[in-house]
């Protein structure tokens, strides 16, 4: 788990899981490229890394735009010369509504960030890693990519698509020395789950939180660092024989069927 001399690129690194992954790579010696459309949040993550003695670059980007994705790849190469690890992480939750009533524009927005954004990341990072004949990619899916979650059709569809992209890409590039895996968080204590709590019950989000956590065998939401540990492991030499896999980090929720009736939100 020593990444000294390695370059890690993380999208959606301004907060939550992305920030935890960026800080985790930096603590293990990696040079870290932080990507986020929120400039203040992204700069804050890079600033923390530098304050702790690490080396980091921030690049503002909208992951749905090919030009922005090409720019963050170019910035990483210009600064560090290579990309060893790519956490393809940026994502949004969308709104809460039945499929029969779901807003079409919101559906398109979720799919643009969660699917097109992941695809474009793969499209422009994979050629770099193929040329290097080495590299590891981890896409952020969700337990919502494994089971259905009522009233979240866009999010569920998008995360199923991320797993499909992961499996497809892994089979294409394995002989090139490149590995592609996915991480599937359950409810994680970040902005996203709290936004869902508020959408479901504006007057009592705490009650939603209590019910969700009660449905998890470990009895609590996961922490961003617990997901980061799996992402970093999958990018390490310890995972050298792992590709095309999805790793569930959900406190046992899917094992007991809890995700069937509740959103799997990171």
Describe what you observe in this structure.
The chain is an alpha/beta fold. The chain has one domain (7-260): NAD(P)-binding Rossmann-like Domain (Rossmann fold, 3-Layer(aba) Sandwich). Helices cover 46% and strands 15% of the residues. The chain has eight helices and seven strands, in the order βαβαβαβαβαβαααβ. It has helices at residues 16-27, 39-51, 66-80, 104-132, 153-173, 191-200, 205-214, 224-235, and strands at residues 7-11, 31-36, 55-60, 85-88, 135-140, 178-185, 246-249. The longest helix is centred in the middle third of the chain and has 29 residues, at 104-132. It is globular, with a radius of gyration of 17 Å. The mean pLDDT is 95.
- The CATH topology assignment is Rossmann fold
Mean pLDDT: 95
Rg, nearest Å? 17 Å
CATH superfamily: NAD(P)-binding Rossmann-like Domain
CATH architecture: 3-Layer(aba) Sandwich
For the largest sheet, list the strands in their spatial order.
3-2-1-4-5-6-7
Shape: globular
Total number of helical segments? 8
Highest CATH level, the class: Alpha Beta
Q: Care to count the β-strands?
A: 7
List low-pLDDT spans. none
- H-E string: EHEHEHEHEHEHHHE
User: Largest sheet, described in full?
Assistant: 7 strands, parallel
